[in-house]
Amino acid sequence: MRISPKSYNDYSEIVLLTLFAIPVGIAVGLVDALFGRILIWITDFRMEHPYQLIPFLGIIGVLIVWCYKEFGKNSAKGMSLIFEAGHGTSDNIPLRLIPFSIIGTWLTHLFGGSAGREGVAIQVGGALSYEAGRRILTNVDRKLLLIVGMSAGFGGLFRTPIAAAFFAVEVLTAGVLENKAMLPALAASFTASFTANICGLEKFSFMLSDNVTFSLLLALKLIALGISFGITGRLFTMYLHKLKIIFADRMKNPLIRIFVIGVAVSCFSLLLWNGRYSGLGTNLISMSFDNGIYTWDFALKLVFTVVTLAAGFQGGEVTPLFSIGASLGVVLASILNMPVYFAAALGYSAVFAGATNTLIAPMIIGAEVFGYEYLPYFVIVCTVAYACNGNLSIYSLQKIYEIK
Fold first, then answer.
1. Residue 205 located in a structural domain
2. How many Cβ atoms sit within 10 Å of the Cβ of residue 181?
């Protein structure tokens, strides 16, 4: 891991960014709360009416793609716009990205697509911070403006502010920490999390109570878990990228592509336990900590999410990754004779590490959600998962730092 260089002669930029991060955090926290609370309502409504909503996923997909094509312009690139701005290959993140990503994700979830939500939060935060910052702080590095917004978006939505800040400073280039942005990122994420909390957006947390004693045998089991979770994250990423290419090659018209795949996803979603694998996967996360997981849940959730996103539906990947990891942890716990909830918690964070090619944020998010006393175990498992993913990332424009 390389720490990005910083000039110690000029702290004014950090001070300005930190002050700027507070109103950004408030604004992004408000949007996150609105987006998140409506998404929860949509999820509950879809689960109550699966046969009235899920069959229309293909038609809704056509509407989403058509609207992006006619009115969204380059906002259809979504997360790619964020990474292009972060790497300096583009200097424009259109604000229309915000309503398009939010509404597109709401529709995807309402009609049964399997997708996440963090992509929206990061795009909202990144777009707001980047566009406001380049008008107000004209002499500040624009990458830092982007990191502030990304941290606010993640922190406000998931209510894990420390993990959000580390995620924002390490995700653009794997192996590099943009340490100059650390304090502003923390200010933005804590402010956004506090704002979202005031607005009623609840945080998922589960305090583990397993009495775990470290030993050589446990260390070997943790390594086995890390390998399994890392490979799972790698498979998710690999097939997501491959299916996007295959679908685009076989069905060149995006309207036809999303309709055909949407219909297929609808049919299989209803056939396989009435939409069990639709939406965020929060149902699987809850069942992972309530003895309700089937052995095949993690695999089917992985397939449904990869197919949904590769077809062109809106959303993110992180919450489905949490659900895949937690449900896989339940399965591996029985094989390795480990406490079930403990293994599920480790999977929750480690598959995230394996798929995003980030290291510190997954460790911290595990501690923020499940308790800091288990942080050493998250460190071990996430490190092994990170090492096993082969530098693949769900974010196709993530750069890899190479030692010269």
1. no
2. 28
Kindly give the residue spans of alpha helices, DSSP state H, lying in 199-339. 216-250, 254-271, 282-288, 297-311, 318-336
Q: Which residues make Cβ contacts (< 8 Å) with residue 52, sequence separation at least 6?
A: none
Closest CA to 352 of 229, 242, 244, 174: 229
Residues 180 and 305 in one domain: no
Closest CA to 347 of 240, 224, 235, 241: 224
Does residue 211 lie within any of the structural domains? no
Question: CA 74, 76, 68, 245: dihedral to nearest 10 degrees?
Answer: 120
Alpha-carbon gap, residue 95 to 89, rounded angstroms: 18
Contact predicate 390/349, CB 8 Å: no
Distance CA 269, CA 328 (A): 20
The answer to whether the predicted template modeling score (pTM) of the entire model surpasses 0.85 is: yes
Query: How do the pLDDT tens digits run along the chain, 404 residues long?
Result: 555 544 444 588 899 999 999 999 999 999 999 999 999 999 999 999 999 999 999 999 999 999 999 998 888 889 999 999 999 998 889 999 999 999 999 999 999 999 999 889 999 999 999 999 988 988 888 899 999 999 999 999 999 999 999 999 999 999 889 888 999 999 999 999 999 999 999 999 999 998 899 999 999 999 999 999 999 999 999 999 999 999 999 999 999 999 999 999 999 999 999 999 999 999 999 999 999 999 999 999 999 999 999 999 999 999 999 999 999 999 999 999 999 999 999 999 999 999 999 999 999 999 999 999 999 999 999 999 999 999 999 999 999 987 66
Q: How buried is residue 3: exposed, middle or buried, by Cβ count under 10 Å (0-12/13-18/19+)?
A: exposed
- Separation between Cα atoms, residue 376 and residue 282, nearest integer Å: 25
Distance of CA 247 to the CA centre of its chain: 23
CATH for 287: 1.10.3080.10
Cβ neighbours of residue 256 under 8 Å, at least 6 residues apart? none
Residue 331 lies inside a defined structural domain of this protein: yes
**Number of folded domains that form the chain:** 2
Please say which residue of 198, 230, 248 terminates a domain: 198
Handedness of CA 172, 122, 358, 179 (dihedral sign): positive
Same domain for 160 and 281? Answer: no
